[in-house]
Amino acid sequence: MQFEATSLPGVYVITPRVFGDERGFFLESWNAETFRDEGFDLHFVQDNHSRSARGILRGLHYQTRHSQGKLVRVTQGSVFDVAVDLRRDSPTLGQWFGMTLDAEKQQMLWVPPGFAHGFYVTSEYADFQYKCTDRYDPEAEVSIAWNDPTIGIDWPLVDGQEPRLSDKDANGLAFTEAPRLR
To answer: What is the pTM of this model?
Structure first.
């Protein structure tokens, strides 16, 4: 696997080795020893899988307790995936990193605790899978507005149309009102 640092300290793009032939492909998406050798001693407690249609935006989510690190990947389709730094003392507080994750390139993104996370589906549908380092705590979950002008994410909206949102995401907090993390 190749680990590439991004513009946000702690966020990494991970490119697995893919072995393919006329029968299909094989890749290793998680190996504790490989990650440990790269300085990531991670313990995952939960795996999640969602399917969403084109134009769906999920996020920007984080938890004030049980902050989750997430290893995210797309196994069908494509999404624009985003991490936003919410670490209170970070020099990159409020900055974002975004990239396209798709089933063709097979890349993953490591989003450590202390970041909000979200994604926007750019293909007909997308299967999104992610491993979490802590449990889901709905009482501690916060949603920041996807279009917050302070953060200024440049979402690649399909045909420039507003994304489809859950009620929770449609009522997301402004970045200036959102609790910061340690």
So the answer is: 0.95
